[in-house]
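Suppose you are handed a protein chain with no further information: no name, no annotation, nothing but its sequence. What can you learn? This example shows the usual starting point.
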Amino acid sequence: MNAPLSGIRVIEFCRGAAGAYCGLLLADMGADVILVDEPVDDITNDRHSMPGEPAQLGLRRNKRSVALDLLTLEGRSLAHTLVRGADVVIECLPSGALARAGLGYDALAGVQPHLVYVSISAFGQDGPRSAAQPGVPALEALRGMLGTAPSGLEPPRDLPVADLAAGLYAAFSASAALVAARQHGRGVHIDVPMLGATLAIAALRAGDEGAQAAHRAGLVPAAGMARGTAPESASDRTESAEGTGLYRQGLAEVAEHGKASPLARDDDAERFGGPVAPWPTFRAKDGYFGMDLDGQAHWQSICALVHRVDLLDDSRFGNALERARHQAALRDVLEAVFVLEDRGVWLARLAAVGVPCTAISTYSRVLADPQVAHMGWVRPMVLPGGQTTHTIVSPVRLNGRSPVTHGDPPAPGAHTGDILAELDAEDVLATRNDIPPKTR
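A reasonable first move is to predict its three-dimensional structure. Written in structure tokens, the prediction is:
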């Protein structure tokens, strides 16, 4: 049983860590995971000698790879043949990319009703943000929602929280769906949004802060908050003990208005993400934003936007490796231009040329995002003592619906009588069928 998914074939159409991590987890459990690569991968070529490459390439372990060009008729035909023998398809590509190749869920489910189809995206398959830029590595700038690490105002920037959380949710959901597919012969379309997955794991440490943030975001009424809590005020933030979530969120919100960096650290490498610089955070006139420097195409677009095409000939920034080595200089050069205008201006310009980017956010602001309301991720919850609070439910959707009806947390032993009665009934049934009763 060291390979419980042996015999399961998974086809992975993914760019970025979220889908790759999902495929890796399934491969580690014995699935035959076939990674569909492009014939020439520009990102890999740009990073071929980058520090940290083993960790990136480690997401490919236990997999097999086939190079197919889905823009050609031959490539699409081979992909269709490949998928016909699959149990699971994982896709994490620009919206509609596989559908245009005839490899979307609707097209495949008709001929493969048992297929488990996993779609991983930044914000989900529908809603006001569903058409936004696909992978959005700079979604990591939303990590203000996670609170803070003890040493600073944000967790280490070199840990792709949103990608890994989504990959975990996706792998678990696919495994569960495979059980149902084997039992009933019907697959499912699984929608895993990185934003929802990150909110869900953040809720585990948000506590009352999360409930207050939900209230401030207008998602729940003040009366619905747990007893003894109230919307936080400036005095609440300053009087909270240092190290608590409310205190740290207060600092982050001050930073949001440009008085301090939400990533304020003494070490430039910490701010830029360690030994590589794909997701640095930059200061604009009114605050901070994150953007993705992944690949030469993004770098060329950024140089053009800041009217510094001369940087393309600067040996310090010639490729991702050199940009990482000279990240402090990179920050100084770009921020000299970015601070001249508000970050909203830069975010609009970056998005227009296809560079993934986002404002640094906080838990409150993320909860206020219209995508959160559209997905219905914030739900009321009654605690065992009768207090009412709110929780972030599972962000995963199966065929467009949440997987289960939410149940309130039970008091210890609340269902003892019911469960013991069920066990007694099972013992009686087992006796009638000459089956030895269960030992308790």
